[in-house]
Amino acid sequence: MDKAELLKLKKGSAAIRIQTLKMLKWRRYGHLGGAMSIVELMSVLYNKQLKYDPKNPQWEDRDYVVLSKGHAGPAWYSTLALHGFFDPQMLYTLNEGGTKLPSHPDRTKTPGVDATTGSLGQGTSVAAGVGYAFRLNQSSQKVYLIVGDGELNEGQCWEAFQFIAHNKLNEVIVIIDNNKKQLDGPLTDVINPFDIAKKMEAFGFHTIKADGQDEEAISDAIDEAKAVKDSAVCIVLDTIKAQGVPYYYDRSDSHSPKFGPEADAAVDAVIAELQAFIDENGGM
Amino acid sequence: MWKLAPAGTGKEMRTVFVETLQDMMKDNKKIMALEADLGSASGFNKIQKSNPDQFIQVGIAEANMVGIAAGLSMRGYIPFIHTFAPFATRRVLDQVYLEGAYAKNTINIFGSDPGVCVAANGGTHNTFEDIAVMRSIPEVMVFAPADEAQLSWTIRECAKLKGVHYIRANRKGNPTMYAPGSTFEIGKGNVIRQGEDVLLLSMGEMLSIAYQAAEELAAEGISVEVVDMFTLKPFDAELVRQEAAGKKLVVTFENHNIIGGLGSCTAEALAEAGAGVPLKRIGANDVFGQVGTYEYLCQAFGLTKEHIIETVKDALK
């Protein structure tokens, strides 16, 4: 990847992170941890890998994103706003009565949201259905299925993975956000997933491990996944819960914190640093 | 319009389901049949042979099947999924609720062998609560067709509509009620027998038993009107109110718990109308299912014409 493109992706990540943090800080609460850990992925998808048209969100030939870990909605909403699906001012309606931006994605409400998710595990099957439809239509479209590592506790994920693997349904690119924490604590304390990549390989997936903080690595992994023709594909992203906001790395409330003066200051510092990075590199 | 047919037994309901889907698939490549490893039980494996591109085997994974159907619907396909009634409803309730109804997707659900139709599969596979749970989900339509003609019509109508449609039906053949080619109206009950004293409401595999009971009561001087309420939701409350007027008694007769099914629908309609007509609900009375032959289970849960006759006579004393 050339430097200019990588810089574009990194600035894209910075912009999504800034926008998401501003929104959550304004709301005074929200699913910060799991939103932050998919920021780099969102930047790679919407700045490079995904086929979409913000002026025509229902474009027949678009790729689909299914955010099965629906609580990461705020990162997705920021991405969609920054990429022209709706006015960024709308972000400041998150979870308000009558909003088009509920905490968990709703395909009937938000431009650019293709699947309704939030009851964990269920997005995996929906993505399998969309991918199967792509195959029936002999289309080259892809579904990017984003699954949380804690979400893997849900049995339905494994039902869907068996189906995807059995059918070699590489129209679905399974991406697991391995941020290693769930609501009640580290995965290893709640329900140990053991080696997720090995599990996926054992299920029949061509499995790629990538650094989820590195846009180039994420993009390369997606390129590799797209080239696979004879099996299902999975990318396991090594990420950090609350990625990019170190204040939350060791805090037990990182899944869905409430904001106070200390958090405000920590988040403001991150926003300032990221904004400086963007400004020093020619702005957006 | 519908017409009643001479008594007889129609094709197996599962055969009707399969043949109707196969017929629709001739002209509509968007119709999809999904099965969760019960293709031999439902006959859906015949669709796998005749229309392999329109059949999906998901294995023993009902929740996944519902989600896949939702995903297909998002791309314009018209999925029909099958499994036994308990797995098609209570096992996948959140999936049907969220990825089906809430997300405005289209899923047509065939829940086979509801209630006493379960026979040898027993209490674990019994469902007396499928209507109750499905009708409590907003916008979901719930059907209990009585026979071959009504089932075939219902499947074809569901294929034209968006949304979640639950069709509960026996796998085996039901007694014939309607003439071939009969048409119906969703949300409208059918008065299949006129009567003056008692209003008897039923549906599905129980309808013919209700009709027979009415015939026998007539011989004893009790005039019973029989109404087929094959659409549990939307429910024809107006017809219930209208036909209950002037009657001495209303009776519901269903292969379901009296909590949440036809009995409850009717009670709600009568109470809201201030009808003031006594109601007797015949069905499983807050109990679990069990194993046995269909005939044994009908006896065990009071789903017999003799029980209807006894109930009516007692109530009219």
Notes on the protein architecture:
The complex is a heterodimer of chains A (284) and B (317). Chain A has helices at 3-27, 32-36, 39-49, 73-82, 122-136, 155-166, 187-190, 196-202, 215-227, 261-280; strands spanning 64-67, 143-148, 172-178, 181-182, 185-186, 205-211, 232-238. With 284 residues, chain A is α/β, with parallel strands linked by helices. In chain A, the strands form two sheets. Chain A has a five-stranded parallel β-sheet, sandwiched between helices. A two-stranded antiparallel ribbon of chain A has the order 4-5. In chain A, strand 4 and strand 5 (185-186) form a beta hairpin. Chain B is α/β, with parallel strands linked by helices and 317 residues long. Chain B has two domains: 10-175, Rossmann fold (3-Layer(aba) Sandwich), CATH 3.40.50.970; 190-316, Rossmann fold. In chain B, the strands form three sheets. In chain B, strands 3-2-4-5-7-6-12 form a seven-stranded mixed β-sheet. In chain B, helix 1 (13-27) runs parallel beside helix 3 (44-50).
